[in-house]
C-alpha cells in the first residue's frame, strides 16, 4: 500500500501535463480561428469594393464585354 500515493501522484502529474498541452493547443487553435476571421473580413471588404467598382463602371457607360474593348496598343 505504500506505493499507492506515489502512483496517484504520478497519475496526477501526467494529467496536469496533458491538461497543459491541451490548453496550449486550444490557445493555438483560437489564435488560428481569429486570424482566419480577420482574413475573411478583409476578403469580404475587398469583394464588396470590387462589386462597387464594377457597378460604377457599368453606370459610367463602360458597360459591355471587356472583349469588345480594344487593347491600348491598337
Characterization of the model:
This protein is mainly alpha-helical. It is 77% helix and 0% strand. It is built from 1 helix and no strands. The protein has one helix spanning 3-59. The longest helix has 57 residues, at 3-59. The radius of gyration is 30 Å and the shape is rod-shaped. The termini are far apart.
Total beta-strand segments: 0
Low-confidence stretches: none
Largest sheet: none
Inertia-based shape: rod-shaped
- Integer-rounded radius of gyration: 30 Å
Mean pLDDT, to the nearest integer, reads 88
H/E element order: H
Strand content: under 5%
Query: What percent of the residues sit in helical stretches (DSSP H or I)?
Result: over 70%
SS field, number of helical segments = 1
Structural class, from helix and strand content?
mainly alpha
